[in-house]
């Protein structure tokens, strides 16, 4: 039983393209090292799990689930994250690139600024490593802010529109213990175009990047 | 409320007492000292003293920045609980529990951590001796096995957290345990030695190569502190 092998997706921009909001050094380590490690460990866990299952050793297969969830989540989160960032000078980084989504945000939170304040507070409230996401809720289609611990991913029901990585490795080399400044500056490089496309499109399309890199 | 909380955790209280009673700290806070308020303990060594294993910059940010934030968060959580209690609103007081656990745990964990580290010229590094060595040999086979087990535990933490050598009070044995985020070691376990696996503990120096940090930190473990904690456990 051969298992799928995942590959590191290329960044849609250069490592230094998000400066000064996110430094080149952070982007390079984050993409080429951290993201790659999640993929390496995901592929390993998937293979061990599949092999064990093929040998009828359910217990050994199940033992890999935690690693699959963690590293699979890491791969999914980072893949979506790179796509929902863009250089601040680009048209994609302007909220105007997401007219429908921004209208829905205003209808939900009153204004884009109130939403940003609520999202920022949620990010800063994470205890330990984790992510904050704006999602389109399954069923109701409503917008919601969710935070997830470690590498838990938005994989059940809801549609992730954009996420912000709150692991320390995402900002520490540049912002040190001043994570509030990172949270403030991330708005300069949010890819609103991507968020709009995810909001309007089918949920499965959000995860296309994963299939495209196997 | 603060005293009650600390009373239920005597090991925590003991760990916090020596540092907060230091004359320098007492003098600084004499005018504004509030009973039961947590304060940042002084380090018993310089920020640069653990180099090259942990850089001075890491130590300074970790102590003055991160640990101070936990101290502030703890005091603010305790204050909010007190205020809610004063209004007779126990439900509101209980809702602050996650912040109390996070910041209180952060303060406790870091306080224990600084004390179980030391530069080489102040007892850091080397190997456990005496009763501690015997206990380690009995429960792990050897010091080498213990180190391997702790390093494996550290590498396996998914996200932020700590690994501890702890004493299981009912079994009487030493064990390696991990705690996520800032969850303190409580209940049946007495913490003897902790290693911080949050990225802020090593990232400026080791970046994504955390295994190198986990190997290096053995050079600055203060086994005297660990032995004393075991005596009292």
Keywords for this structure?
A: 214 residues, mainly alpha, Helix Hairpins, minor pseudopilin epsh fold, 2 domains, 10 helices, 3 strands, 50% helix, 10% strand, globular, B: 233 residues, disordered N terminus
Could you please describe the fold and organization of this structure?
The complex is a heterodimer of chains A (214) and B (233). In chain A, strands 2-1-3 form a three-stranded antiparallel sheet, sandwiched between helices. Chain A has ten helices and three strands, in the order αααααβββααααα. By secondary structure, chain A is mainly α. In chain A, 37% of the residues are buried. In chain A, α1 (24-54) packs antiparallel against α3 (65-83) and α4 (99-109) crosses α8 (192-200). Chain A has two domains: 24-83, Fe,Mn superoxide dismutase (SOD) domain (Helix Hairpins), CATH 1.10.287; 91-211, Iron/manganese superoxide dismutase, C-terminal domain (minor pseudopilin epsh fold), CATH 3.55.40. The longest helix of chain A has 31 residues, at 24-54. In chain A, 50% of the residues lie in helices and 10% in strands. The model of chain A has no long low-confidence stretch (mean pLDDT 97). In chain A, β1 and β2 (143-149) form a beta hairpin. Chain B is mostly helical. Chain B has two domains: 2-28 and 54-118, Helix Hairpins, CATH 1.10.287.990; 130-232, minor pseudopilin epsh fold (3-Layer(bab) Sandwich). Helix content of chain B is 54%, strand content 10%. Chain B has a three-stranded antiparallel sheet. In chain B, a hairpin with a 5-residue loop joins β1 and β2. Chain B starts with a helix and ends with a helix. The model of chain B is unreliable at 1-33 (pLDDT under 50). Classes of the chains: A mainly alpha (214), B mainly alpha (233). The interface between A and B is medium-sized, with 20 and 20 residues.
Kindly summarize this structure in a few lines.
The complex is a heterodimer of chains A (214) and B (233). In chain A, strand 1 (130-136) and strand 2 form a beta hairpin.
